Predict the 3D structure of the following.
Amino acid sequence: MVYPRFPPSFWSFGYIKDVGGFSAIMPPLGLAILAALVPPEFDVQIVDENVEPIDFDADCDIVALSAMAIQETRLFEIADSFRERGRLVCMGGPICNVLPERCRPHCDVLFEGEGEYTWPQFLAEWDRGEHRTHYVQLDKIDMRDSPAPRVGLLKLDQYRLGCVQTTRGCPFKCEFCDIIVTYGRKVRAKPVAHVIAELQQWADHGVDFITLADDNLIGDRAYCRTMLRAVAAWNRARAVPVSLYAEMSVDAVRDPELLELCREANITEMFLGIETPRRAGLSETAKVQNVTLDLVAAVKTIQSYGMVVVAGMIVGFDSDDADVFEDQYAFLQEAGIPIVMLGLLQAIPRTPLYERLERAGRLRSPSQGNNTLSFTNIEPTCMPYDQLVNGYRELFTRLYGFQAIGDRWLANVDTWRAVAGRKWLQKPLGRWRPFMLLQTLLILRWYVARPSRFTFFCRMLGGTLARVPAALPQTFSYLAYFIHLREYADKVVAREWTFSYALEGVDTRANRFGEGGRINMVKAEATYRAPSSSTQA
Ligand code: B12
Ligand code: SF4
């Protein structure tokens, strides 16, 4: 089973691998789950190219590849290399769920949808010499049938986080979202006992930071409450609690009990899909759950439960105008959201957005998997394409200027004054390890290299000490993240300006979800203008 290398991306944390002491942020959970479904008579190995090289001449019968769309180029290279060597190549994962027609020429067996039923079915059929070339899981699987991942097959010392998925699906219907296309709007939950057993499994392997890899943790609130209570009890009984990272919709703010449970379970970071502070954009994209909220107040409330908020933001809605960049900046600074994944709106095949724009003839080119690059496949109506792309790039680099990051981080720490006195503070760093000493030195080395960096470093530590001294470990660990984000902003976002893509030969007619026909392929080339706010330091 093979997981392709990621290109440099917002989430790759490629610029701090030495500092963090990991090769990749998270292991490929999908493959580890599918490995658990392989019958005992098969030998199985997981090779994640993000942590180790692939042996293309390995003696094997089947190569199973999994990938997101962002890994497309490398995925196809790997698949083609194995096929040249006569291996049977199977392909599945998020890319196949939205772009099956692009994957089809590069594999022998294509899987669409969840793999818990189709993968063992294929293995049984292959064993009998009668497998098919295409498996599609149309009905959603029962989460009780999703086994615990085979964690023992992973090179665990190479990752920063473990992962446990408690639910799949989300009740909302944001127009751009491919999650509900693949996993549906009915939330399916894993039995709580399975969740605890999986957490225990990771913890037994020494992992002390775990992602709850749900699309929306609070999609089923009743389940979420029960599950978080169990996790809190499990975590509280540990000498050093495991830190958790999760993703939820902002309407959680209406439910203080749920937020309290998040804190008790030791969720230290929470990703929120805020997208835009503008009501018009939220309404346009059917993000109804955010429209009536005071988003600044909502973020501050969530932060006050001890969580660091990470926000997903988008520019490029039809209702956006030239002021949107300033509006986004002002909102993020005021809300004090330290980590912002800022993307340009892209239309992912099979989503309602894609279908609407296809009907309107507004698809410039195929979508691509990195939504934090200066590229979109949408013909914008809000402003000329180049203005949108340049505005996006300027906003990104502005947000990751030292002054702006420092302001946001310290505003976030401010909200913790309310929780500093609480009995059970968040424990973000896990257990003490000697490597932390070296990490500290590596972080310091980056910050002392330039005066502007060092000034920022001192401001972050001094500002934290003046506000909530107990939050110093958090500040220190975020100083490491900020190295990556600064480098990504300066070396990737600020500098790339054209996106060349293999536009030829993509035909979406095979797609059952109705794209019907060739899409309008115009090569996307934005004119480069160096962002005036580039903050290389
Ligand atoms: C955790 C997570 C992450 C983690 C890392 C995950 C990892 N291993 O590297 C982090 C936070 C780092 C991350 C980052 C990104 N992510 Co992410 N992430 C997720 C999330 C929330 C959960 C992933 C997961 O573990 N799922 C659980 C497993 C069990 O599901 P699965 O992998 O899809 O596998 C199932 C099926 O697909 C299938 N299957 C999978 N592979 C195979 C192979 C075969 C042979 C078969 C038969 C079946 C099969 O069977 C599995 C069991 O049902 C998903 C959303 C989601 N619900 O999946 C988004 C998601 C995968 N991420 C997404 C994106 C866009 C990104 C980023 C590109 C964002 C960015 N701009 O930087 C980055 C790229 C990563 C990088 N390193 O650069 C998109 C991918 C869209 C797409 N179609 O490609 C998703 C779907 C969310 C979304 N809609 O926006 N992500
Ligand atoms: S809340 Fe998130 S997961 Fe749910 S539909 Fe909207 S974008 Fe998708």
In short: Residues 497-537 have pLDDT under 50 and may be disordered. The CA atoms of residues 497 and 528 lie 5 Å apart. The chain has 20 helices and 14 strands.
